[in-house]
C-alpha cells in the first residue's frame, strides 16, 4: 500500500460521508403529520434520512481510520518512531485538529441520525396538538461539512507524515535541494 492509495481512500470516503450527509439534510422532512385528538400519533413520510446518516457516519469512521493508519503506516517496510514523527509541530497540530474534527463530525452525524430515528419510532404522544418535529434542521448538513473538513485534514496529515518521514530517514528529494535553481538555455 502506498501513499496515493491511502490518500485516494481517505478522500473518497470523506467525500462520500459529505455527500450522504448533505443528501440526508435535503431529504429530511420538515415535520410529521399529527393524527388524533387526545393522543397524537405522528405519521412521518417515508424517507432515507436515517439510512443516509448511518452510512455517512460509517464512511467518516473508515476515512478517519485510514487517515490514522496513514500516519503510522510503515511505508516500504520502514517504520518511523512516533516521537520522530511528532517532532514536527505542524504534524502534531494537524493530527489533533483532524482528530477533533472527526469526533465532532461523527458525534453530530450520530446525534442527528439517532434523533431522527427516535422521532420515527416513538411516534405516539399523550399531548394534544403535538407538532411532530424531526431532527433539528442543519444538523446533518453541519455534520457533513465537518466530516469533509476532517477528511481533508487527514490528507494534510498524510502529506506532513511523508515530509516527517523523509526528514527522519534523510531521504533525498528527487526535485533537488531547496534554493537550487537549474536553468538551461537553448540558443
Automatic annotation (TrEMBL):
Family to which the UniProt record says this protein belongs: Belongs to the DESIGUAL family.
Keywords: Membrane, Signal, Transmembrane, Transmembrane helix
This protein's name: MARVEL domain-containing protein
A cellular-component GO term for this protein: endomembrane system
Transmembrane segments: 48-72, 93-114, 139-160
Native source species: Aquilegia coerulea (Rocky mountain columbine)
Domain of life assignment: Eukaryota
Signal sequence residues: 1-24
Entry keyword Transmembrane: yes
Pfam family, one: DUF1218
Record's bilayer topology term: Multi-pass membrane protein
Locations listed in the record: Endomembrane system
Amino acid at each position: 500500500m502506498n501513499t496515493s492509495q491511502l490518500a485516494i481512500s481517505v478522500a473518497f470516503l470523506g467525500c462520500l460521508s459529505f455527500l450522504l450527509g448533505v443528501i440526508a439534510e435535503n431529504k429530511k422532512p420538515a415535520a410529521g403529520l399529527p393524527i388524533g385528538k387526545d393522543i397524537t400519533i405522528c405519521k412521518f413520510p417515508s424517507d432515507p434520512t436515517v439510512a443516509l446518516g448511518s452510512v455517512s457516519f460509517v464512511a467518516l469512521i473508515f476515512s478517519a481510520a485510514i487517515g490514522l493508519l496513514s500516519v503510522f503506516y510503515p511505508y516500504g517496510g520502514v517504520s518511523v518512531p512516533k516521537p520522530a514523527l511528532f517532532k514536527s509541530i505542524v504534524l502534531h497540530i494537524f493530527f489533533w485538529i483532524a482528530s477533533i474534527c472527526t469526533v465532532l463530525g461523527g458525534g453530530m452525524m450520530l446525534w442527528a441520525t439517532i434523533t431522527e430515528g427516535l422521532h420515527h419510532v416513538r411516534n405516539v404522544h399523550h399531548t394534544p396538538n403535538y407538532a411532530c418535529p424531526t431532527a433539528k434542521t442543519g444538523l446533518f448538513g453541519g455534520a457533513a461539512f465537518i466530516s469533509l473538513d476532517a477528511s481533508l485534514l487527514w490528507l494534510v496529515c498524510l502529506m506532513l507524515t511523508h515530509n516527517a518521514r523523509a526528514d527522519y530517514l534523510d531521504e533525498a528529494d528527487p526535485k533537488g535541494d531547496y534554493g537550487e535553481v537549474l536553468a538551461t538555455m537553448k540558443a
